[in-house]
Amino acid sequence: SWVLTASRLSTFVVIPVTLFYAVFFADFGDHEHVFMPARRWMDARKASFFSLSPAEREVAGVSDNTP
């Protein structure tokens, strides 16, 4: 039946999305909690993705003193 298929599909979508949200976005306060290492890892990945290496800065002609 289509209900069983929809239920199974929603299980494979809803549970991973909920876990991803809980690990990376849910607010557990300012104190250290079990997901902090994963969040620090993700913050480091985001910072490296959205920044330029020294070689890339040289090619782009961007100086380090730009505001």
Structural class: mainly alpha
What does the largest sheet look like? Answer: none
Global outline: elongated
Individual helix count:
3
Query: Nearest-angstrom radius of gyration?
Result: 20 Å
What is the rounded distance between the termini? 60 Å
Report the uncertain regions: none
**Fraction of helical residues:** 55-70%
Mean pLDDT, all residues: 90
| Quantity of strands, as a count | 0
- Please report which band the strand proportion falls in: under 5%, 5-15%, 15-25%, 25-35%, 35-45% or over 45%: under 5%
Q: List the helices and strands in order.
A: HHH
Tell me briefly what this model is:
This protein has 67 residues and is mainly α. 66% of the residues lie in helices and 0% in strands.
Structural summary, described in words:
The structure is a single chain. The chain is mainly alpha-helical. It has helices spanning 2-24, 36-49, 54-60. The radius of gyration is 20 Å and the shape is elongated. The protein starts with a helix and ends in a 7-residue tail after the last helix.
Features:
3 helices, mainly alpha, 67 residues, elongated, 66% helix
Please render the helix and strand layout as text.
Elements: H1 2-24, H2 36-49, H3 54-60
